[in-house]
Write a structure and sequence with these properties.
Blueprint: H1 10-33, E1 36-46, E2 55-65, H2 75-93, E3 100-108, E4 121-125, E5 139-146, E6 155-161, H3 175-188, E7 196-202, E8 207-210, E9 213-222
Antiparallel strand pairs: 1-2, 1-3, 2-7, 3-4, 5-6, 5-9, 7-8
Helix pairs in contact: 2-3
């Protein structure tokens, strides 16, 4: 025997429809007007020459709320971020006499597109100037950070190039150099205005999370992609092999 159909009063159905409609409206207006915009900020620092191969790159992310109070996020806003971040890496992490360029791309964090295209703003300083690396270019100091929880998907790293500084590295990073990296993180958190936040961007989640903690260890890291190509070789033949 089949069960009797459950009778639902009309007012219950209407209330459920109204609830769903309210959810839809909230989601729509939130995504349309207050969805955060992602700033992808790439910093390029040159040593030894101005060839593309001789630029060392770092990437940081920021978010900004496109609200009526904050104002529209435009190319001018991107230019301000580019200049602020470029000056931080030039002065707070440097100082260096090598060319530095910062490029910024804006996009909605709800967009699924990963194509950056042409930057919305580009800032460049010390243009045309180069310097000789004071150490192997692979040497880096790692600035680590996380957003809320120190777990995969919520943490990241910036490999700061020691060759762009005036430091000749020893067995371990010095306290002043570590403090320079710590201060850089503090300054990154202050970039822009109250509507701009230094963040971690998760590609798998296509979501941005505000950085809550950062630190620097007293050990070097290695970025082999920044190293020089070999220009010579010595070899030996072993006839008894």
């Amino acid at each position: 025997m089949s069960p009797l159909p459950r009778l639902v009063p009309p007012w219950v159905r209407y209330a459920n429809w109204a609830y769903k409609a309210g959810d839809f409206a909230a989601d729509y207006f939130t995504s349309a007007f207050v969805a955060p915009t992602l700033y992808t900020c790439r910093i390029e620092m040159w040593t030894d020459s101005l060839l593309p191969r001789d630029s060392m790159e770092c990437v940081v992310y920021f978010t900004g709320d496109a609200t009526e109070e904050a104002g529209p996020l435009t190319g001018t806003t991107a230019m301000n971020v580019a200049g602020d971040v470029g000056a931080l890496f030039r002065d707070a992490w440097g100082p260096s006499a090598g060319q530095i360029r910062t490029s910024v791309w804006l996009r909605d964090t709800e967009s699924s597109s990963s194509e950056l295209g042409a930057p919305d703003a580009t800032w460049i300083d010390l243009e045309g100037q180069t310097r000789t690396s004071p150490c192997p270019r692979e040497v880096a100091l790692c600035l680590s950070y996380f957003a809320g929880r120190n777990e995969p998907g919520r943490r990241g790293r910036i490999f700061l190039p020691v060759a762009y500084t005036d430091t000749v590295p020893g067995a371990r990073p010095t306290a002043p150099l570590m403090e320079r990296a710590r201060a850089l993180a503090e300054d990154l958190a202050d970039v822009g205005d109250t509507f701009t936040k230094w963040c971690l961007y998760s590609r798998t989640q296509d979501a941005a999370f505000t950085i809550s903690d950062s630190w620097v260890d007293n050990e070097w890291d290695t970025q082999r992609s920044r190293g020089l190509d070999p220009t010579g070789r010595v070899s030996t033949q072993h006839p008894d092999a």
